[in-house]
Each structure stands twice: as structure tokens, then as C-alpha cells.
Amino acid sequence: MSAGLAAETRAWLEAQGFAVRSEATWLEALTHGSFNGSGAEVADYQRLEFLGDRVLGLSVAAWLFRAGDGPEGKLSQRLNALVSGAACARIARTIGLPQHIRLGKQARDDGGADSDKILGDVMEALIGACFIEHGFDTAQALIYRLWAKELEGDEGKAKHPKSALQEWAAGNRRMAPLYEVVDRSGPDHAARFTVRVTVRNVGSAEATASSKGEAERLAAKAFIERFG
Fold this sequence. Notes:
By secondary structure, the protein is mainly alpha-helical. The chain is built from 11 helices and 3 strands, in the order ααααααααααβββα. The protein has a 3-stranded antiparallel β-sheet, with helices on one face. The protein is flat and about 60 Å long. The mean pLDDT is about 90.
């Protein structure tokens, strides 16, 4: 049987506004699948992540709808940016989540506690746990507090770098940008992707990130900054 929440983890959860009723719910939210390899068979965060992802999406969509009268395309662009794994991982780091994730030794040694994928997933699982324990209104209020700077900032307002590069290439009568993964390293839960984007007869740029999509975005951004 799994031990209960560590005192410092419970104190941390309470300090972030995650009021704990059932410790089992929060243990599940903080447990990565690799933790079961340590001999303690407990549920991992995947089911709560699934739920939290939907609660986060609906909460942010409602905020964006009320905040202005932008067209659906602009709202979708901002929504996708604000609920992305990268955004969730940024919030997770801001509140000090990495040290509280329950990982197996190998996963922790491999850098799992700093993986955007894991941090983003656990952040959503915590939202799911909050919904289970306290309902939608409480979970939504917590999201609005934690995401306050992101919601009020420019995240997702600018055109996505890949779209901007596509338009730049077309406007300059160049062939469409070509993206290729030139390196992949690390285990699945802490993978690093290096992507090169090339526009024929112009040049190329590279970037590395914890997901292929994010590496493509950063490579496109680097290309525009260099050649645009």
C-alpha cells in the first residue's frame, strides 16, 4: 500500500490553493507511471490528466469568450497556446511542482522532473484532482489565478511562427519550408528533439525542445529572426 502524502507536499499543495480532502486523489495526480517500478503499486496521473485537460480547456475558453469579441480563429489560436503542454509546464515550474512529482529513480535520474511533457501532464492532473474534490467552480477559479499572467499577457496573440514562416515564404516566392528532425535524444519521458527548418535558396535554422512540435515552432521563430 502506498504511503500518504509527505508533509511538505501536503503543505505545498495547500499553499497553492489545492485544498486536500482525500490524500489518495492527490497522490494519484502526482504519480508518474515509472513510480510503480519502485514496488509501490499505485494509480498514476493519466486518468486525472485526461479530466483536468478538459476542465482547463473549458475554463480558458470561457475566459477568452468573455474577455473580447475576437473571431473564432483568433480565440482558437489563443486557446491552443494557453492550454498547451508548454504553457502548463511553465505554470508548473512557477509554483514549484517539479520536486513534488513521484517518479521512479531512473525517470528522475533521466531528468523526468524537468520534462515539459511530464510537468504539463501533472499540472493538468492536479486540476483534475481539484475538480474531483471541489467541483468546477473552484477548479476554474484556481485556473484563473494560476494562469492570470498568461491570460492577461500576449500568449497566443501573435501569429504562430510556423504560419508566419509559411506566409513569408509564399510572399517571397519561395518553396514551402521543410522541417526535419535531425536529432532525438533521451528516454521517451524526457525526450529532446532537434529540428531543422529549411527554405530552399535562403537558409536554415535549428532549435531543440522537449517535443517535435515545440522544436518546429522555435526553429521557425529562429528562421524568421535570422532571415525575415
